[in-house]
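Lecture notes, structural biology module. Today: joint structure prediction for complexes of two components.
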Amino acid sequence: MCHALAGLSFDLGPGEILGILGESGSGKSTLAASLLRLLPPNGIITRGLILFEGQDVLRARPRGMEKLRGRRISLIFQEPSVALHPAMRVRDQVEEVLRAHEPLDFAARRNRTRQVLASLFPADADRIANSYPHQLSGGQRQRVLVAQAIACGPSLVLADEPTASLDPTTQQEILALFRTLRQELGLSMVLITHNPGLLAGLADRVLVLYAGRAVEVGPAESVLASPQHPYTRALLRCMPPLDQESQASRKGMLPVISGESPNLSVLVRGCPFEPRCPEKMEVCKSCDPAAVPLSEAHTVSCFKFPG
Amino acid sequence: MQLLLNVENLMKRYMTGKSFGSREFLTALDGVSLSIQTATTLALVGESGSGKSTLALCVACLERPTSGSIWFDGRDVAALGEKQQRAVRPQIQVVFQDPSNSLNSRLTALEIVAEPLIIQRRFDKQTRSKRACALLERVGISAKKAGSRPDEFSGGQRQRLAIARALALEPKLLILDEALSALDCSVQAQIANLLLELQASLRLTYLFITHDFAMAAHLADEIAVMDHGRIVELGAAEKLLRSPEHEATRCLLAATPRFHGAANLPEGL
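The predicted structure, tokenised, for the full assembly:
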């Protein structure tokens, strides 16, 4: 049995962007799938509550879930080249989403598709609409996925590593696009990534995920500029610096986190980061730290901070 | 300091015309010149389609350039015949971005690292096994995992395995083609440290291809910026950071996610 998520709690307001910072094995993709109840057959949510716009997601019936997925909550996947149908034109792929979720007639669907594509491709929406995925660049394909995600006007978009396969410049364009969508449509987002640099300047709040637990949650500037949890500090420290003063450490050893991310099929007692923690204490081996508020909005789960 | 690699005016064109004999072509490399001193690192940065991977394939003798020369260890390898090139290739090895594609999923770690030695007919079986084991230890994979297959390793461990395999034939030049890009941030740091340590102890020369300017600035002595098949700026890492001249360099720097203060975090409380 693999314990992917444990005691994870967070909330999200309208027009807010929450960044989930997690590496491989942290449970981040399980989190995205859980929110939409898209777990594989061997994935079970054993405990907890997911409230969306007042509705209990975990208790929703299949018809209820269908009304949520794609329509009220949508998901942007990581690999646009895999997520898009290679033999369907872009226009048909966006219409397909509308056909699945909205009771519109043919003309209304066409119109809505044209609208959505025009908002994301202001210069050449018609050409893009007629194209097949292989005729588009990586960035353009990702925009098509965004088009599919916002076609039905959801209030929440989940994005799982949406810029992973893109060039830096294209990455920045997509992040800017998310900012615009938040501003113009009041969209809320949960942005899941392993790269802290993508969240700086975009996320309102950051939740740091380790071994399925939220080890630190708070305003993005606080968590990224003055992290408190030993894992967050170690993670941010191991990124190579880009400013000129830090060139003194060029070709030097980066301060790494020793060891590997934990095996989630082994249920541990105590803090899951303890084996790799540079600041571990005796108590960390046997007890699981509870979330301690450092300020009104910033909490950390670590015995360094008395509760 | 000696020059290990000196590329002069390299051109690579691919025919793209649909009809036979049509004159349409795509210029992937448009007169590229660069050089790397022994035991140093040159980072090649640029966006997708800038020609970085094409350059890597030409230097590794896996593609023939349309024109130009590639001086490696005193010889123009681009001008060599197939048989002679085969003798040079072991000295130039490549580590690719996605280890799950470049590692044979049906072989064990030990077999993967020993395979180049078998193909090149070096040593007897026992010696090959011993060397492969030593290489695995060298890259931080414990002997206990020598019998595991790639899918039993994490992404970072698979990349260590790819590096071990690349070192089997004792190459002089290692081309790392986006070798860290698919890894988590903390794992990138671990592999970067491994590469630095191997460079120091084995006097390896690296051609480090990436679109991550921060990692390039950290690992490389010199950075070459590529754009549309040309090198548009070339210089020491400090200089490019301090005063980038070309538009492409400035764009890449501006697009690189950065932190303020993260590097200054003290250890401990």
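Point to remember: The mean pLDDT of chain A is 88.
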